[in-house]
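Hi, here's the filled form for the chain we discussed.

Project: internal
Contact: R.S.
Residues: 279
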Amino acid sequence: MYTLACHPFIDTVITSLILDTANHLFPLGLRTILTVIPYAPQIITTKVPSIMVVLGRAVCWRDRPFLDAGKSSEAPSTYTPPPRREWTVALSADEKAIDPPVSLLPVNIVRLWLVAIYGAWPSNLLAFVRDPILYLRGKQVECPYECDWEDVWRPGLLAARTGPLLKEFSLHPSIMYFNSDGELRDMKRWDKVDPPEHVSRAHIIAHSERLSRGKTDFFDEDPDAPSIQPSGAATPTEGPQEPSTNDVQQLQRENLWLRLEAGYADRLRKQYLYRELSA
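And the returned structure, exactly as it came back:
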């Protein structure tokens, strides 16, 4: 994975995530970068300003699919300006009629993207969504579109779209020690952090509220989303229902998993906080 992170292919994937409007290609690019981050955070750190541009597109795309450049605006959709550089844009019209796996659905893959970015570079994430124009100009990131940064996202848009997704995240210890520039300069914080620990730590920080409530399904629907019952679904019968043997066994297994995960989360949280405070 480290070799892959150093390969120009990763830069091509990031450029695709910034410019392309193919709704089936975008989640695959996100998944590629997500896979590489835990194995080569030092390498990806050099690309964080561009990663934040991808974040801006992702949180807008989460609810509204991309609209190909040159087409008339249709609501609800996420419009992408044409690229400034020479690039053959992959259009959404090229989509295949296939059902993506659950982990690549817009809501789920963007949630995983936020977990990874906040777990690795929380100060940069907050600085970006708070004021993307100030952040990108401060990092000297040239706008890749045929417009200025002011025309890409209207003021307050990213904060409004990201806020609900971050509401259950815990305070990341790095926010107490680094601003966005210091977070990118300091590479010592990656020392002795192996990929499994990095992933576990990011999920614990992101889902501590859910874990405290005994929830482990990180692909649950948003709590504010309306409940939709599929057509043809059976209507629950009135009155108390006797639990079946399979239901009892499933509850016992889930209870065991929750106890084991809660114990592991508590140990890892104490170890992480102790390491941060010792540093």
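Let me know if anything looks off before we file it.
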